[in-house]
Amino acid sequence: MEQVCLAFSYILGFSREYAPTSPVFVPMMKLMAKCCEQHPQHFYMGLVRSAIGFFASANSAQLDAVLVDLTGLFIAPIARHLSSPPGTLAPLPQPISTAAYEMLAEALRHWNLALLSMRSAPWLSETLDSTIEAMPRLAEENQAVHERTICAMLRFLRNVLLWSDPETRKGEDAPELQELQNQAQALLTERPLPRGQALPRIVAALARLLAAAAPNGPAKCEAVPCVAEVLRTLFTGPFEYSAGQQLPFAMRSLPSPLRDALGEAEQQRLMQQLKMEKGDSARFVRTIISLTEQYAVCLKRSQFGA
């Protein structure tokens, strides 16, 4: 089946002008979704990701709907599986979950697919909810094993946050882009999700990710810079005030001894520093790495004291 998926990718790539109108295109992709459901493998998600890359810019409402439906067919079961209570389902192989979220991040990178997903795809709200639930838990269970999946999840969240920011439109006043901005903001702050509003839960999950990275060499963890970029997107966009209010609360909600790693004055200085550095990606990332290293020192002191 890996060879079949590679063959389909080559066929679609070389016939991209004609493939979307072929009567076998949609049945072929749905067949791949059925095969993936029966025996999940990462190369199925790779095929869908390739199709998104080939056809997302075709400017076809019918094709956009097909690509959004395909994305949901593949990502929703994976997200649901990852967010299930521990021990209820067999764990997924890491390459499958990583490939699924890389496919999702690719879909949400295209404004037309992002708009259609946020406007009318029921799977997106469920997937966002499941992702926020699963992401910190995966890191706390075994960050080294799940790190690539966590980074792909963070890219998905960052894409949603970017579409909520007026700066992403770069001065373009197209009604579709304005609607996309409104839809993204509503998804994060207004739309009811099964486990609660998205935005404060995202901030809490980011704090838990930093805490989980602390014992694992923060400067070497791929997840820490990814967390930093999501936080920076929060601080540069329309949610700056909310993020500045919720991040200290999330840090104080971490388990002991990390909740006491920074005093109130230190937390206030950190928030001011993040706001000042939000325009400089490298400095912002260094500050978040430094915070995570403080957590690491706090954990070591606690162990030594015990």
Question: In terms of per-residue confidence, which ranges show pLDDT below 50 for 5 or more consecutive residues?
Answer: none
Distance between the termini: 53 Å
Structural class designation = mainly alpha
Beta-strand share of residues: under 5%
Query: What would you report as the Rg, rounded to the nearest angstrom?
Result: 20 Å
Overall 3D form: globular
Q: Tally of extended strands? A: 0
Helix content: over 70%
Largest sheet: none
Mean pLDDT: 91
Query: How many structural domains can be distinguished in the coordinates?
Result: 2
Number of helices: 13
What's the SSE pattern? HHHHHHHHHHHHH
Keywords:
306 residues; mainly alpha; 2 domains; 13 helices; 75% helix; 0% strand; globular
Describe the protein in words.
The chain has 306 residues and is mainly alpha-helical. The protein folds into two domains: 1-196; 198-306, no CATH class. Helices cover 75% and strands 0% of the residues. It contains 13 helices and no strands. It has helices spanning 2-14, 25-38, 42-55, 61-82, 94-109, 111-120, 122-163, 175-189, 198-213, 223-236, 240-252, 264-277, 281-305. Helix 12 packs antiparallel against helix 13 (281-305). It is globular.
